[in-house]
Design brief:
Layout (H helix, E strand, L loop, with lengths): L2 E11 L6 H9 L6 E7 L6 H11 L3 E5 L6 H11 L2 E6 L5 E2 L3 H11 L4 E9 L5 E5 L4 E3 H6 L9 E3 H4 L11 H13 L1 E13 L9 H15 L4 H18 L1
Helix pairs in contact: 8-9
């Protein structure tokens, strides 16, 4: 059963005790209150589940699902999407944050413009919470433009299951959120975003986005194995990906 205007927040957790309390608090502090948070734990070895369970005692909107074996963020997120009861599917990672009006502003934007999928700009912080700047995406992107460079931050994305149905992430180890945006954009051609930063992305020292070679490898995998592009198309988009990557940093 799908609940009218309920937002299901998809949050994968793995050894996230350092930051998860702040992530949960940023959802509890939303001005928009009609949400559920579906946290899927991927066999954490630290105290993150105890932290999550303390919040569940205080707030019935928070749910915890524990995977039986460590399966990676794609399977964790897809399990949460499957269990979600909301009309809207939103994404947050266990080390990122939302600004208090994030859901309210984004849902209003979606309704006013009759959009099935949106994203926003976001601020950047380091592990200590120091401000590092902001990322401002284009106002509109298409399937072909995001093959060149992906400006949609997972922590900002929301899609409407009433318009699109439930759409799942490809089961790949990294970049599965990007794979999902490509799936959606194949169906709706283009998507519009909010240029105001509504979320806060934490840059971790060991993250894929901070390891350029690893990121490039997964990008190539998306082109060849997920999107099944031919070698010429893959090389064309990969050159664009490298160009925009250098420009961004």
């Amino acid at each position: 059963m799908m609940y009218h205007n309920l937002v299901s927040i998809i949050l994968p957790s793995y050894n996230s005790e350092q930051f998860i309390a702040k992530s949960i608090e940023s959802v509890i502090n939303q001005t928009y209150k009609n949400w559920e948070m579906v946290i899927v734990d991927d066999c954490s070895l630290d105290n993150s589940n105890e932290i999550i369970e303390d919040y569940i005692k205080k707030d019935k909107r928070i749910k915890l699902i524990k995977l039986e074996k460590n399966s990676g963020p794609a399977i964790a997120r897809n399990k949460a999407i499957k269990e979600a009861k909301g009309r809207y599917i939103a994404f947050l990672d266990a080390d990122d944050l939302w600004k208090p009006a994030k859901l309210e502003k984004q849902l209003n934007f979606m309704k006013e413009n009759d959009l099935s999928f949106t994203y926003s700009a976001y601020d950047l912080i380091d592990e200590e919470g120091n401000h590092l700047g902001k990322f401002i995406p284009p106002k509109e992107v298409s399937y072909y433009s995001i093959l060149k460079t992906n400006p949609i931050g997972c922590l900002t994305a929301i899609y409407d299951t009433r318009k699109l149905g439930k759409i799942y992430m490809p089961n790949i180890l990294k970049r599965q959120d990007y794979g999902l945006w490509l799936k959606i954009l194949k169906r709706i051609n283009s998507v519009r975003g909010i240029i105001e930063p509504l979320a806060i992305y934490r840059i971790r020292k060991n993250s894929v986005s901070s390891n350029k070679l690893k990121a490039a490898k997964y990008q190539w995998k998306i082109y060849r194995e997920v999107e099944k592009l031919n070698i010429i198309q893959s090389i064309y988009y990969f050159i664009n990906y490298m160009y925009y990557g250098l420009k961004k940093y």
